[in-house]
User: Which sequence fits this backbone?
């Protein structure tokens, strides 16, 4: 099978580089168009991007010419991955969709639109059906599918088996988030060294609201939102990669920590059944040590590094009736961003929707 | 007035050094006896203690001879402050009390004993009355009074005005605690660099249980425990000093964030009325900026640096009926340890109990 | 004596805030004019400046209206301290001098001009005489005096007693510099977390060249540069404040480490003789412990915190004939910047040159 | 070819784990015996070792029973790699050699013995001949070969092409070393957070003296030491892995930075010619960016990750005649420790000495 050529919008930034990494040696996709801002346009990617990741920049993208972020620049591909800032995505992504491109976007601009799938393939693969309505309503040949905010993805992956098997009433979550989540230049060293910042713009709103749509029920072209109640308080700490979340849950039924751990460990879903290339064998890894998960190793977790989340310290909660609490940590840049979009595209491909 | 000579048990460790600092230039107390382990005994304090704090070691303690931690070593003082590890405190503190010493202890060994005051002077000054019963029951001339764990103190100070004015049903708290809380050698750099540890031994139990006693009602020599329900999840992060806590509250009545901030800002109690020397003018400082409190400055907060806690991001909670959430940060080593014991002793002195 | 009103140019940035701090409660000077960029102009300082330091912003500057950085804005003062970036200082400082102001500048723009004193009061107080020539030549009523780059000051203070007593031939210095030296936003957290950056723009040139002028001999309105040979390699590390320098020296005569330490410890100079308000009693503090100096405490060193440098590990060098090597650490923001300018102004005042 | 079974002495510590990693999937060697201290003996390795590295512990060592560190425990192997602390190595290694084992040691105990090869395969492969004399003199069937201290290896690899092509007279080196170099528990977080420590026990002596032997000339069973003069000042900084060194050189002949970079980039030696399995294709990688090398990426450098060193900022030195200065950074735990011993063993195998 020859590979499907794809584009990456905003390819030089942190998330863009993670896209390059996720798509390098991908069995189905191959980056053939890379876009960035005006200053980078016209340069080879190897020159335009200041590479921040390990391993080094893959050789096969070094000599791709970076173009400006518009429809003409991606005419040679049918699928584009978007690592654009939301202010730019808002304008560009619909134009791409109108021009017939499938846009697999990590930007927040269209996540909450009624006809735009907000996807975590392990959780709501059936929401892909929204795409048909999106095309009809908007008259597009292409379409936009989105993945949630990093904090939402890491949280919801851990919650999904409990939602299915026992039901969740209420969630309190307090996060300790990595620097890379703010982009390469987002947090100044003088701000965070020997310190923490108990605030991340818009993060709490996203963490509380995106899950209602993701966990919502799809029927007849509409998603009815879930009634789960979530309260989030978000902090930034001095960790390079890996968001960690302290979670308190009220379940619908009494469930022991042992049962919860079993449900999480055994959880598999559509991406695992379809054997999607970057679907981890085990989406949730449960650790039994008293002091896990820790972001320095959770960021690499799983057989597809960075695509599994790690749960630990699952224990009863003394406040809630049917309460459970635990910590979850995952890679905000991979499972929480670029890897999420790639998995979305893989699902579409496996469903013959590309 | 000539100063009251006091002793410090375990004077060379991190908390011991904070005691030295708090008692240096104290208007009422003067360190005259310092104890430590066998290796330090016989040396001058200036030589025995590897000083870790800023400012430098006060001159007046440098030439005090460090002695072993037993009753004979403190015969020249009637009051001793205990910075002992709990395993040693368990054995030594009763002997001191039996020998007629007032032991103002930061150790956890006797905190939860029925007849031992567990004190935060702004919260439960009347619990001091337990001391009379303690003496009667145990036949002691002296006695033991204790202060809570650092995390408990910082949390409860912030909660106290709400407990009084509206009542609190339930509390979820997720902490981000400083390295110094584990003692100078407690956390290895390889463990915490670019990482966090979502576990602190016994910390959650203390944070959930100590408040029940502290907020309990004293009557006829007994404390009836409070019914407040608390769930705590504790993490260690790479911050030198200053614990920060993410708090979610269910109040008994609907109360706006503005009202909550007013209650906290205006809160004053017995230590302020008595003008105790190290009582901060304002025990709770409320910050209005979107990104506070931060431990790097909260650790110095207040007119008595380190004795106030800082609250920020007070906002409604979407999950609880009558919900409120906020962050609080305070100095674990001062308000949360040595300064707490000193304030306890000041209260006793002001009440003519020394 | 009523205090002398002074201005601070660029008062809202990191160095500007250090000027505020150094001049707060100063016995001779009082900030009466504060300038900043257009966005801040018109606001009260308390509102315009995001305060980054401990202790908190002094009350007496909070209600000073910040103005744009031009001559009209400082008409009520005769002396201005400049914390301007060099690109702006280049234009503004001569205008100030022409308008009759004494400009005590931390900017690099005019440091190497032949007729501009580049001063460390302990080292070359006689260079102040250049000011007369500067005024004559340029037809100014005021004038510009400068202090060196932070790295230069910390190095040269440590070297000065050796220059005087035995002579220095050659210097190799490798630095480990603090984040604050790059300004509040200068270093991104993603760059420096778990890393170091072996490069600081222009720093090596300054460290190698400024000393030649400072150690130069003043005669008849001219400074003849010193012949000392210096090679510098500069790195940034994850430390908030305090530059540390690893120094290798070739002396003109065989001198033991003991002798070197004596020379450094006993070093006093004109600022100490004149008892200038912010002159430390001991400019160089020599530590005997095997593992000092360390920036976390060296940043506060001395009786005027941050104005002394700390030397440690003085030992023979096995490569140079008459070789000596040591480490020196000092506060880049105080002794290395704002405090340096203030000390310069104090010297002028003591010499009746204001 | 079936693999050669090998042992690892001190297999549970930081360096021991790096040995496990280097030998996992090694084409020639296979770990078959693992030793550690009494507490670990009898447990499976998977249980005995608290694994600190990424990726996770290789499966094939998990079920090897850890034994005490003595000759009986390694009877099933002829080659042992030693990650022992020097105090234990001093006693154990000769017993192993006497019992016929080849000991490839990272310990410092025997490095400077006249008849013990102190090896960097790219630099002094002919020193392996010392082994014959060692056996003769000591009557051993086996033997001890050692690799240098981490700081020495990283420095000397960078210097070797210059030693060969132009000659080096004098070296000043100031280091910024990683936490892992002190072992997992070696540096306390309270010591190094927001700080540096300008001292590492015995490190400077090793860095100054080991090169004299390594660069020495082997003839007739003896190594005549090199006359190169080295002065080292060593600091610990808050970096997990990767030592960085600031180097100042006096060369024997005038050589341009361009020439130096060419010599370094083109440098290949015996391990490359023999295509040893873990020999990097390019032992020295020269970076042209203004701000490299940085340890966060240099720690992974090369086609065999961690086995190349990275040089940057090669420039003229203004102090030395024929002076050159640069920075070099390399992985202290791989090229500087476990990987060094493995490369030594590979060289012996390729020379049919195993």
Assistant:
């Amino acid at each position: 099978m020859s590979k499907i050529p794809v584009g990456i919008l905003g390819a030089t930034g942190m998330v863009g580089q993670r896209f390059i990494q996720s798509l390098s040696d991908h069995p189905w996709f191959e980056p053939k168009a890379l876009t960035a801002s005006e200053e980078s346009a016209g340069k080879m990617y190897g020159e335009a991007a200041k590479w921040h990741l390990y391993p080094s920049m893959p050789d096969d993208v070094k000599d791709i010419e970076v173009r400006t972020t518009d429809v003409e620049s991606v005419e040679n591909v049918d699928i584009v991955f978007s690592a654009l800032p939301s202010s730019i995505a808002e304008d560009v992504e619909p134009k791409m969709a109108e021009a017939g491109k499938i846009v697999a976007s990590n930007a927040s601009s269209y996540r909450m639109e009624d006809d735009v799938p907000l996807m975590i393939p392990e959780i709501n693969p059936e929401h892909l059906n929204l795409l048909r309505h999106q095309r009809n309503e908007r008259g597009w040949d292409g379409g936009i599918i989105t993945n949630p905010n990093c904090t939402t993805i890491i949280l919801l992956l851990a919650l999904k088996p409990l939602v299915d098997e026992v039901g969740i009433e209420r969630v309190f979550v307090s996060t300790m988030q990595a620097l890379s989540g703010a982009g390469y230049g987002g947090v100044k060293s003088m701000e965070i060294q020997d310190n923490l910042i108990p605030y991340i713009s818009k993060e709490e709103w996203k963490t509380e609201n995106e899950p209602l749509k993701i966990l919502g029920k799809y029927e007849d072209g509409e998603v009815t939102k879930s009634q789960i109640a979530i309260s989030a308080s978000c902090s930034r700490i001095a960790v390079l990669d890996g968001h960690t979340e302290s979670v308190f849950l009220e379940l619908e039924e009494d469930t022991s920590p042992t049962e919860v751990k079993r449900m999480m460990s055994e959880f598999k879903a559509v991406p695992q059944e379809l054997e999607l290339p970057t679907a981890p064998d085990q989406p949730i890894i449960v650790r039994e040590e008293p002091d896990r998960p820790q972001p320095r190793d959770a960021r690499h977790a799983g057989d597809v590094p960075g695509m599994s989340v790690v749960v630990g310290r699952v224990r009863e909660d003394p406040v809630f009736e049917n309460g459970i609490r635990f910590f979850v940590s995952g890679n905000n840049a991979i499972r929480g961003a670029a890897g999420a979009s790639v998995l979305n595209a893989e699902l579409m491909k496996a469903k013959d929707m590309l």
Q: What stands out?
A: The first strand of chain C starts at residue 4 and ends at 9. The two ends of chain C are 15 Å apart (CA to CA). The first helix of chain C runs from residue 14 to 23.
